[in-house]
Specification:
The chain is α+β, with helices and mostly antiparallel strands. A hairpin with a 6-residue loop joins strand 28 and strand 29 (538-540).
Length: 639
Amino acid sequence: MRLHGITAAVKLKVWTLMVILVVLDLAGSLHRCIYDEVQAGVKVVRGETSQRHSSFHEARLTQGPRASLRPHRSTKQKAIMERLALSESSFPQPIKIKIWIPMESVHLSETEDTRLKAAVEEAVRTVSSILSVNRTTNPLLLSRDFSKYCKFVWKNSSSVNHNRCGKANRYYRNETCLDVTIPDDHLAGCDVYPEADSPHRTILRPEGAGLPDVDFVLYLQIKATDKCRAEPDVLAYAVQCQTDMNGRPVAGAVVVCRNRLTEATYSHQTAVQTVIHELFHALGFSKDLFNTWKDCSSSNKGGPPCSSRGKVTHSDGSGQMRIYSPSVISVMQKHLVSSDPELGGPLENLDAAAEGVSSHWESRVLQGSIMGAVLGDSTTIRIDPVTLAAFQDTGWYTVDLRLAQPLVWGEGEGKSFGSIKTCRDNSSSFFCTGSGLGCHFLHLHKGECQTDPYLDGCRVYKPLKKGSECWKTESSRWSDENPQSGEMFGFDSRCFFSSLSREGYLVRTNSSIVGRCYRHRCTGTNRYQIQVSGSTWVDCPAGGAVQIKGYHGSVFCPDKRICVYPDVSPPLKDNSTPSSFIKYDFPGTLTSRSEAVVVTSLGFFAAVCFLATLLMFCRKFRAHLHRIHTVATEDPHEL
């Protein structure tokens, strides 16, 4: 979610200091995203061009002095421009993202700095490995907001300077992106034409150098804003600020709530996921852009350039707003195992705009998606196939769909899965009724049957607030409801519905089936064994139940949930140490700061060498003194 610059693809070119959203890693907690609310207050600048060389092409594509002065291109000219821009890159390349933090932003402690660099590196590297773009060879140059710097426009269509600025706004100062001032060096210039038919112009702002080797720039601020203070479940928020001539976002911004960075419950993996979530919003997962997506299927085959997909958001028969685009429909049908054409990507209805469209997936249908409206425990969040299919259908990106993580939630459940009607009839094991204890659907956590505003009254097993993680040995301290249930905690433990109780102890007549943690080991796909305290390994038939010698009751063995998805596992390590090639960079000191790092390193190296040389000299000198002393005491005749 969330350095005069970090540039990322396969490698990061610039050292970075980026602050990201840090989510409280309390099991069962939900952290809300307010992207749509904040984006509604930000004007997105629709850039005619994305690269500084466009004016040169425009001059070559127009004829005559009058045409060359006009700022607006014809449809034919725009099509030619698009082809020229795309022709510079013969194949898609991993997107390069620069994160820019203003100098006035707060300074981080060493701990915060170390954590954040590690999270940023991993998040940006992940996004860059997933999304690729057709890159031009020229620097990224952002457009200025014409309505901000221009007070008067020539309206006479017969004038040479028709639709050009005739008078500047004297109060114009700068361009901003969510209150971050965009450096003039990142921006195109702007001119004023005082006379309607004269080519004479006044340069209001000169053209900047642009951002070399960059596809997207994200401006970042670390602040304790009013939103941060008023809403404790809001940890950060982001917006998009500018798109290029093809509609692809090329600039965005994020504000990180400062006090979230010092939480004792900081989790590296949670931070990484949150950065990815906010980056996905800024890169185009936005209700304001859904209906601007491009169909580039023909252009990829050497045909005409990309065409508009038109409106892709529509309501299904039940009133659920969905995204209907080819890849999204295909992935949804495959996921739910249904050929129903109504299975578009469902959009969250809570906090949706008047038209019912939001920038998040519906929680009832796509629980655990990286683009859900709320994020919970980091082990339950997935970079899912439906989200990546949506990016594929934008037409702006080539997406490596192989990197999608299986969603698990609702897989194979049919076209009606997640509807308000079916979630309450107890027909799906993904939902629950009442308020009892059980297992989260990934079986990494014990859970409690709960709902929240985004579930519209449906209930799911959410991780307990304390001691839910079966894979943590320390969770055993919270497991005191039935000490004779045979629970075992550790990295290979999973949650199972169980009614076990040791023989020889008083058995409750109303012994209930609840979530318990037992060891497991895979013996094949969807095949595994379990072990409870004091028992041997026992085969646990998927979809059936097993009894354990020495215990009353049974353990129920989930089907198609355990030993099916290799990447559904506890975190091996919550590492917050960055790799050595992350660098620091601040506005105005891009070169000098980097040089300072180099000089400091060289100075340290020289000092070490000097001390080593001095030590060696001292040792030799002492040996020499010792030799002189020895020689002086020997018989002079032997000399």
